[in-house]
Amino acid sequence: MDNHDQTIKDFGEQWLRYCDNEGFYGSLELFSDILSPFLTPDEINNCRVAEIGSGTGRIVNMLLKTGAEHIVAVEPSVAFEVLCRNIAEPERVTCLKITGDQLPPYGDLDYIFSIGVLHHVEDPDPVVKAVYKALRPGGRFLVWLYGKERNRLYLALLQPLRGLSKHLPHSLLAALVEIIYLPSVVYLGLCRRFPLPMQGYLLSVFEKMSPRKRRLIIYDQLNPTYAKYYTRLEAEKLLMANKFGNVLVHHRHGYSWTVIGTKPLS
Ligand SMILES: C[S@@+](CC[C@H](N)C(=O)[O-])C[C@H]1O[C@@H](n2cnc3c(N)ncnc32)[C@H](O)[C@@H]1O
After folding, report:
1. What is the dihedral sign for C-alpha 14, 18, 19, 22?
2. How far apart, in Å, do the first and last CA atoms of the chain sit?
């Protein structure tokens, strides 16, 4: 199995085990943070939208809360069944068990979102091209990606560990997560007092998660076969090289990239 199919399989198995979207992890407060500074939830009200790589459907349910008129949710893994089960208002959602590059060329969508997905796709260009075709002229694509800059120390620790952890069966990976959990909480405590690396993310996001979701976040870093950490330039190029205009990049909490691009009017 190649990296692409194996990564989808990894996520399918992950979401069958971590299938709920409780608390801050599934909240509109977190969605506002993800969209900031480019969009507010209000701007999505009454819009036709899609999400690429929906997992357990937390972003789809956030989109429902914004008042989006209709949502296309794309999820290729076996987690598709979890997605369908978790959706709060199924009549406003079309679920498709396809990869992002197979998104139908609707041509009338106002916004498309892909949150934490494209950094797990080895060749994301076909997905971005499909998104472009599915948007209306003037429609916008918002992507959230792992960042490389200011994560050098974290990546120096993570990358060697991932070399092992991505091969572990669930029981051993869950045991490794337990070992890492306590030091991560101690580090979080230190971040409240000192300006340490990743402080912005830890205090604005990680701290607000329940203990179960904090464990999921650690698991999610260690589990997938393929994960790329983007430089600012790579993040920007991903949309610019695929015909998007007015591409803007935000360094979210100093550790990741929120990128938005617009399909030109003509
Ligand atoms: C980290 S999860 C993010 C899920 C969701 N967006 C969220 O934020 O909760 C990445 C998801 O992307 C999906 N995925 C992986 N490769 C994909 C592809 N080529 N096209 C669409 N989705 C893909 C995985 O199956 C997984 O559910």
Report:
1. negative
2. 41
Which residue matches tokens 């949150």? 115
Q: Which of 120, 128, 258 to mutate to test the pocket of ligand 1 (most atoms within 8 A of CB)?
A: 120
pLDDT at position 33 = 97
CA distance 176 to 51: 31
Beta bridge partners of 262: 140, 245
Q: Give the CA angle between residues 124, 30, 230 to the nearest 5°.
A: 30
Which residue from 25, 16, 26 is spatially nearest to 85, judged by alpha carbons? 16
CA of 230 to the centre of ligand 1 (A): 17
Query: Is residue 210 within 8 Å of 100, Cβ to Cβ?
Result: no
Nearest-CA residue for ligand 1 atom 10 is 117
Tens of pLDDT along 148-197? Answer: 998 988 999 999 999 999 999 999 999 999 999 999 999 999 999 999 99
Which tokens is 198 given? 């990743």
Q: What is the DSSP string of 18-52?
A: S----GGGG-HHHHHHHHTTT--GGGGTT-EEEEE
